[in-house]
Amino acid sequence: MKLFDTLSTMGHEQVVLCSDSVTGLRAIIAIHDTSLGPALGGTRVWDYETDEAAIVDALRLSRGMTYKAAVSGVNLGGGKAVILGDSRTIKSEALFRAYGRMVDSLRGRYITAEDVGTSVRDMEWIRMETRFVTGVGGVGGSGDPSPVTALGVYSGMKASAKFTWGSDSLQGKRIVVQGAGNVASNLVAHLVKDGAKVLVSDIYADKAKALAASTGATVIGTDEVFSTQCDVFSPNALGAVLNDETIPQLSCEIVCGGANNQLQQEDKHARMLKDRNIVYAPDYVVNSGGLMNVASEVTGYDRTSVMRQAEGIFDITMNILVTARDRSMLTIEASNAIAEERIRKVRHVHGSYSGTPVIRGS
Length: 362
Description:
This protein is 44% helix and 16% strand.
């Protein structure tokens, strides 16, 4: 991997490698673009096969955060961090406090939050060492962002239904939900309440069974996720699940889910979906509710306003789908173009971010 060539191609401003031998911390912080404001994005804990795989994931995720903020109207840049290791075994107060010191050294260019493999408790440990963290509990904190993320995915799914079938109702629709984590669990609750027929799967079978038991959904095996007949396929686990192997197996009309970077190769696999007449709701658009939630902490958290913003993902998604149709574009091309135009105009006004934001409650 030619790291600097990759950074130049993807447009990253900064990548920081973090190491602490005492706590076992090995982390990567990627800052993609700060034209709109300080980079905000979650910290993911994952057991990557190689260090290179971790770097690539951090780069892709941080770029996605830039586009997510831009298309959703949030005045923040894009960043992301990954901590290497198994989240079930490596997490400790000392590790997250050591990581918090690394975040603090960036002096506000990067603000972190919860992500896959981390929790509100982990954010509170980070907060002991830096004020540049959101998603914490207590007064002024937003806590777990997954309910807001799920509401945004649900709103984007209803917009996709309206675009595809002429009605935003999901009643009676057969929906395969991949993943049974926090976002998926909240999403399934919305779908079941709407009268959808939900089938859920997770690599951890106990989580899928627990979610099904609490909601009335049906469990399917991980080997059935892509081939099961459905109206909507909703990826809510990890990325790159839409690829050469899986797309030919799909029998749905819509793909709409909360996972980041669902397309293994953005243009190629978006084209494959379109060629199969499958409507793809860009992931960074429909899952932007979580960003809206933690971004609100920067200026003073307002839950009512955040939920209203998340519901507005319906209109954002519809605009992208209609724009793509009317201009004969891929939906990911349409959303990228909208995001890039906003970034271009604001960058002209104030360039990249170098100051220190004031986070209320710090």
